[in-house]
Amino acid sequence: MEDSTDWWDHRPVFSTTDKMARITGLAPGARPGRVTTRLLVSVLLCFLGWGAVSLLGTSALCGATSAPASTCAVDIHISAGWCIAAAVVVGYLVLAVTSDLTENARQRLGQRRAASLLRSAPLLAGMSVGAFISAATAVAPDPSDVLRRTVHGEIGTESIAISAVVAVVTGLWAVTVAVRLPSALRHARQRQATIERLRRDGRQYAGQVKLGRVAIWLGNNPELEVTIAYESPAGSHEVQARMRTSPDRVPVDGSQVVVFDDLRGVVHVELDAAAEPAFEAEARYAPSE
């Protein structure tokens, strides 16, 4: 595990400033991550893939209604069944691309919130564009008449209305995510840079972790409220922190930690791997059924 570049492999991860998905990690010896070309390519593929899934799905919906076949966003000779089959195949491939994007972003950026937003932005934008193309193609033959019938809820226009709603809802959601994304990326980058700086320039002290209650469960992983106690030339210190980990890597109460302090109120905490820490039984911190 010592050679892993994935910050999560070195859990537990402590934070004296952040909670939940904002907690940021950086593997020992690693440099702060950034948005790479590979990530951008994955973002583009995610956008195109979810756009295709959305287009095929809404087109299949169109073909399944009683609307004239000419209003479908795909060729009239392609049946709804084939649209569904294509959507399933494309969807499987898109899920693989999306999963790879999420995992690569989580590992590189060191933060699950930033990775989640980086995945959600192209996903939602793609769904919005695909549904919009489907709805726009459906009304193209006679826009005024089709829109009038859709507004009045006439039979055969359900798919157009649903496609339009999907396009609007996912589009607004995508805008919300896109607005939040830059600040999330900056936060993750700044937190990793702070961790790197404290490891390099901070004063290093030995401390102990005092376990508190489980504050929240993120999936199957607990996040605990903990107290970090350590001694420095200035005296005794107790710092409140959050500890995010998995059920099998909850250190026993009183485990040794390393505290990096810049003497300006910024602190970074890590489990002392050199002390060969012991961990609580996995069942004790496993989520209840």
Outline the fold blueprint.
Blueprint (H helix, E strand, L loop, with lengths): L12 E3 L21 H28 L15 H30 L2 H28 L3 H9 L6 H44 L1 E16 L2 E12 L2 E10 L11 E6 L5 E5 L18
Antiparallel strand pairs: 1-4, 2-3, 2-5, 3-4, 5-6
Helix pairs in contact: 1-2, 1-3, 1-5, 2-3, 3-5
Summarize the structure.
Helices cover 48% and strands 18% of the residues. The protein has helices at residues 37-64, 80-109, 112-139, 143-151, 158-201, and strands at residues 13-15, 203-218, 221-232, 235-244, 256-261, 267-271.
The percent range for strand residues is 15-25%
Neighbour order of strands in the largest sheet: 1-4-3-2-5-6
Q: Give a quick account of the main beta sheet: strands, pairing sense, barrel closure.
A: 6 strands, antiparallel
Class by alpha and beta content: alpha+beta
Gross morphology: elongated
Number of helices: 5
State the low-pLDDT regions, or none: 64-78
CA distance, first residue to last residue: 30 Å
Total beta strands: 6
Mean pLDDT, to the nearest integer, reads 84
State Rg: 25 Å
Helix content: 40-55%
H-E string: EHHHHHEEEEE
Transmembrane segments: 39-56, 76-97, 117-140, 160-181
Keywords: Membrane, Transmembrane, Transmembrane helix
Structure, described:
Keywords: Membrane, Transmembrane, Transmembrane helix. The chain crosses the membrane at residues 39-56, 76-97, 117-140, 160-181. The chain has 289 residues and is α+β, with helices and mostly antiparallel strands. It contains five helices and six strands. Strands 1-4-3-2-5-6 form a six-stranded antiparallel β-sheet, covered by helices on one side. The longest helix is centred in the middle third of the chain and has 44 residues, at 158-201. It starts with 12 loop residues before the first strand and ends in an 18-residue tail after the last strand.
